[in-house]
Amino acid sequence: MTTLKEFEEALRENGMLMALAVLERLRERDRATRTTKPARRIAGKKMTPELARTILELHGSTEMTQQEIAFKLGVNQGRVNEVIKRGKWLSGDPHAPEAVARDKAKARMRGAEPKKKPRRASEKAGATAARKGKGPQAQLAFGDL
């Protein structure tokens, strides 16, 4: 199939200046009526066990893709994948790994979780020795031998 650019080049080669002028006028009209729309961004719903069951029902009873299910329910496609592949969010347990991770992330976003203080080099060395099961090393003096 011929592209518009190839068509324009053919018009130039054959000296069809009137046709090129008409084509340019059509382009200007198109630019004038063209609008830019903002990206389609979905504000995700909170995942609940009920929403997870709905995802599984749609996945099992329809031929919808994960992306279509996500768009229909207003959730992130990654959440749909987690429900289908790993069975996440099916229990209402607040101590489930995904619920704990969500709560930690929300706390970080609010700034509620205090940041860890950077440790000094001397503290790091002592902690490393303690982890290896060794206490502080004693040094020998010349008179000890």
TrEMBL record:
Sequence segments annotated as region (Disordered): 90-145
Top-rank taxon: Bacteria
Residue stretches of biased makeup (Basic and acidic residues): 100-123
Family matches, as SUPFAM superfamilies: Sigma3 and sigma4 domains of RNA polymerase sigma factors
UniProt name for this protein: RNA polymerase subunit sigma-70
Organism: Methylobacterium oryzihabitans
